[in-house]
């Protein structure tokens, strides 16, 4: 029962990342938000990884420095810059629904890159999910698929999904405990991001109260608590079962949007249903359990 509560909370906090990210990104750049988020998170991830996994950081970095850097560039820098950049142009609801396609993308890329088995049901699920995303992108008018001008933010979220899938595939082959691997990747990412910070100002004096609350939330809840709750639960219930709960991110995002007085369109509801059904079919295979475990919404 405790693990189920942890899984619900983890996905609730990840959903909040879309909502608060939309507010914060109006006041600071995606670059600064990504840097601040993971700098603060690293201060918590390092001691957590030390006490839970007892890693030898020096040996791990010496042996796995290249895949850890690549993981950081993809999962920490690339994914987050695309996510927060997308929120400048699209709604949190759209971003969360398009992001729900990620597990299916992992299955498809694993088939091509890792030669993992894929069934007809998996392929059909991916197609159904893709139709759901296209339904949202065209605002319910699939006949406009080759004629419409797509929202830049939605397209950025699609690209973010591919980036996250590549990050997840690398993580599957990385023989490093998950929290330690994340902490090391974050460390390298912060070093890589730092020189670019001088290209953009950080208007701390102009940040609103809502902006500060959003930054604090993003630094702690989706970055630290969600990841900790997720890994604690996966150890108990397994990645396949835990992966089912990832669909709650879009559900919670819709609920929070509604409670805050936002609008939810029919195309979002219908398209979202297609995505969730398709993802379930696409990931419902025994040898892709590890893929589901990697689907953490940074």
Automatic annotation (TrEMBL):
One cellular-component annotation, GO: plasma membrane
Keyword Membrane: yes
Domain EamA: 5-138, 152-282
Location relative to the cell: Cell membrane
Domain of life: Bacteria
Keyword field: Cell membrane, Membrane, Transmembrane, Transmembrane helix
Membrane topology annotation: Multi-pass membrane protein
Record field: transmembrane: 31-52, 64-87, 93-113, 120-138, 150-167, 179-199, 211-230, 242-260, 266-285
Similarity section: Belongs to the EamA transporter family.
Protein name: Uncharacterized membrane protein
């Amino acid at each position: 029962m405790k693990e189920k509560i942890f899984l619900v909370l983890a996905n609730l906090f990840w959903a909040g990342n879309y909502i608060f990210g939309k507010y914060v990104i109006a006041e600071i750049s995606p670059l600064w938000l990504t840097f601040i988020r993971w700098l603060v998170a690293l201060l918590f991830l390092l001691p957590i990884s030390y006490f839970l996994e007892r890693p030898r950081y020096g040996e791990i970095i010496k042996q796995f420095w290249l895949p850890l850097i690549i993981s950081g560039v993809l999962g920490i820098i690339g994914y987050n810059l695309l996510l927060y950049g997308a929120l400048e142009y699209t709604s949190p609801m759209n971003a969360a629904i398009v992001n729900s396609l990620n597990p299916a993308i992992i299955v498809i890329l694993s088939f091509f890159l890792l030669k993992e088995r894929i069934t007809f049901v998996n392929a059909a699920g991916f197609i159904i999910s893709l139709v759901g995303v296209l339904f949202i992108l065209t605002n319910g008018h699939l006949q406009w698929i080759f004629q419409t001008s797509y929202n830049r933010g939605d397209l950025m979220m699609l690209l973010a999904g591919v980036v996250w899938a590549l990050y997840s595939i690398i993580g599957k082959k990385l023989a490093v405990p998950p929290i330690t691997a994340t902490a090391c990747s974050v460390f390298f990412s912060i070093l890589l991001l730092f020189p670019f910070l001088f290209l953009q100002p950080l208007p701390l004096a102009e940040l609103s109260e809502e902006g500060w609350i959003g930054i604090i939330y993003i630094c702690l809840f989706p970055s630290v608590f969600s990841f900790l709750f997720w890994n604690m639960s996966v150890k108990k219930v397994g990645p396949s079962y835990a992966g089912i709960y990832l669909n709650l991110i879009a559900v919670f995002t819709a609920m929070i949007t509604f409670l805050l007085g936002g609008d939810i369109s029919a195309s979002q509801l219908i398209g979202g249903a297609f995505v969730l059904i398709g993802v379930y079919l696409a990931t419902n295979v025994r040898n892709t359990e590890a893929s589901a475990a990697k689907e953490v919404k940074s």
